Amino acid sequence: MRRKQEPLGLTQTILLALLVAFAGTTFYFALNYLALREQGVSKGSATVNISGSIPALPQDFPESLDQTVALGKDIFMNTKDHPLSKAYVGNALSCTSCHLNGGTDPKGLTLVGTATAFPAYSAREKAVITLQNRIGDCFMRSLNGTLPPLGGPVLVALEAYIASLSQGMPLHMNPKSPTGLNALKPLSVDWTRADAQRGKSLYQAKCAVCHGAEGQGQVGPPLWGPKSYNAGAGMANWKNLAAFVHGAMPLGNPNLSPDEARDIAAYVDSQPRPTFRLQEHLPPSGELGVYTSKVLDEVKEVQPVRP
């Protein structure tokens, strides 16, 4: 007579469930691996193809730090026209349009000391970001363009140049904001008394000769319209713009009172400019980053220590 099968106990049931889960997970990853073998794998910010096609630095990118810093300065001064960076710029501005004299003017949005603040927390991104991330934001916002590849030649060179402006300064990572010790300080004015119409008169009298009566730019960069910074830029915050205008404008002879700077900023930032939609400024996922190296094939094996 066949013996009646006993029901599974609790321990046996748990073991059986674990075995089934393990088998299912193994099957899933096996299918996933086969799919990656066929299509390549996108992981993180760089696309790695199984065949070995890895986005990397161009072979003519400088190897020495001094040369990279010099390249970064060239890109900084000529961002909209430089062959490496112009494809990522969507307006008529360059880095030095806001960060005057190559980022060294103490009253012109200086970048001296900025690199010491990174990595830093950014409330806008709700994350800790690097200096390259912050530079990339400027491409998408102030330059109304596209984020260059992280780890690629444009951001590496610009990072090297901006970091060189903080050479020898102590590290001071910022847990509150991605800004350095010399960041713009807000004006002490009554913001509720801002008058954009008075700002318009002041603009025509003191600013239009360089920036154009319609903000289109002449000697100076455009301040509104399709060739200027978009609504996501730092300068699109009129209080930031007011602090900049007060400290640095008119160029070479800053002489505006805080109230005048406030009113001019209220007028300028009330004018039309491109809308910022983040998704329109991000590249495809496979173009978000590169492997920062020219060496794409390396093998190292354990060797006996020979003193």
UniProtKB/TrEMBL annotation:
PROSITE patterns per UniProt: CYTC (PS51007)
Pfam family of the protein (one): SoxA-TsdA_cyt-c
UniProt-recorded name of the protein: Cytochrome C
Domain Cytochrome c stretches: 67-166, 194-272
Matches recorded under InterPro entries: Cyt_c-like_dom (IPR009056), Cyt_c-like_dom_sf (IPR036909), Cyt_C_IC (IPR008168), Cytochrome_c550/c551-like (IPR051811)
Coiled coil location: none
One of the record's GO molecular function terms: iron ion binding
Keyword match Membrane: no
Keywords of this entry: Electron transport, Heme, Iron, Metal-binding, Transport
Organism listed in the record: Thermus scotoductus
